[in-house]
Structure prediction request, 288 residues.
Amino acid sequence: MPDTAMVTDRIRIVPTGGALGARVEGFDRTRPCDEATCAALNRAFLEHQLLIVPGAPMTAVQMRDFSAIFGEVVPQLLRYKRVGELPEVSRMESTLKPDGGTDKTAIRAECWHSDDSYMERPAKGTVLHALEIPSRGGMTWFCNMYAVYEALPEATRRQLDGMKAVHAYDTPRALNRPSPRTAEEIAETPDVVHPLVRTHPQTGRKSLYLNFNRLDRILGLPRADSDALLNELQALAELPRFHFGHRWAVGDAIVWDNRCLMHRVDVDYPAGEPRIMLRTLLRGDRPA
Ligand SMILES: [Fe+2]
Prediction:
């Protein structure tokens, strides 16, 4: 198996030692990725749920091509964030203004969420790439939803299996309101129903599918009971033992699996210091 040996000689996958994630060492993002290395990266992605791939800042085209190692890169909803003619790459500016405000999406991103869950087929993964970061703060946190599901008592797991929940672009349960949508964007984002427990289509493992910004109610339960159950599940997911936090360096790219992770950002960095990222989303399946 000389190819496999070369892959392991050339790139190294180093687990974070935390609740999830691994760091990829020795990978050159500026060169085309050969088949064996792509396969090794995708295996590591499924095994660790998140990969940190350091390197120099990338152009939007390089970002799209790097992202494509992990799946089909899809156009993103909010037109105003798109980079030039590339509908697949968003420029996310979350610089804090002197009044403490920032872009709406950045404020919302402080709450635990899974990207795109208000879509019928949410993105399977997200790639985020740091172009400029503040001098301190702004860590991104990830929550292992396989582990949250596995921590539930057997009886609760049985109760949740088969339950379905409504995900909405906005819900009164979210602390902050989302970015306004154009008429075209509203037409593209009706409420959707997803299972509360989903089975990963590639690993076969079950995880809890939550999103504190979008999850409105559980189908078939009175609102009060739905709220109580969702609050209980959210409290469990907030326990630090399920989390890994990444402190960004300029040039870092992170790819993570939205099917089994939630994430959030600390909006705790100094005002006026630019925080600029490129983002891509990878085509996913309907949660089941
Ligand atoms: Fe996000």
User: Anything to note?
Assistant: DSSP finds eight helices and 17 strands in the chain. The pocket of fe (ii) ion is lined by residues 109, 113, 115, 263 (CB under 6 Å).
